[in-house]
Task: inverse folding
C-alpha cells in the first residue's frame, strides 16, 4: 500500500492547518495550497513568515524575515510529511522551535 501525502485536497490542507495551530502564530492557506504562518515582529506590516509548500511527497518549510519578499524562496528550515494530522504536528513543532528573538532565526 502506498503512503499518500496529506495535502492532495483542500480538506487535507485544512486538516494540516488545524493540527498546526500554535499560540503566537496566525496560520492559514496561502497561494496554491501553500500553508502560511505569520508572527508579529514588532514592526507594523512586517511579520515573520513561515511557509510550507509542496515538495515531492511532503512539504518544504521556509522562513522569511520581516521585510523579505515571500514570492521568492526563503531560508529552508525543515520538511514535513505523512498524513495531514502528522504534518500539522510537525509544522507546529517547527514553529514553536523557531526562535525569533533578537532578529535571529534558529
Result:
Amino acid at each position: 500500500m502506498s503512503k499518500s501525502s496529506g495535502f492532495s485536497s483542500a480538506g487535507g490542507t485544512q486538516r494540516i492547518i488545524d493540527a498546526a495551530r500554535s499560540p503566537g502564530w496566525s496560520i492559514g492557506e496561502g497561494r496554491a495550497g501553500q500553508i502560511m504562518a505569520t508572527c508579529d515582529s514588532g514592526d507594523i506590516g512586517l511579520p515573520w513568515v513561515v511557509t510550507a509548500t509542496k515538495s515531492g511527497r511532503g512539504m518544504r518549510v521556509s522562513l522569511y524575515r520581516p521585510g523579505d519578499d515571500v514570492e521568492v524562496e526563503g531560508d529552508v528550515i525543515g520538511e514535513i510529511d505523512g498524513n495531514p494530522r502528522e504534518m500539522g504536528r510537525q509544522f507546529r513543532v517547527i514553529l514553536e522551535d523557531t526562535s525569533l528573538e533578537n532578529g535571529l532565526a534558529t
Strands lie at 26-29, 35-39, 48-55, 58-64, 75-80.
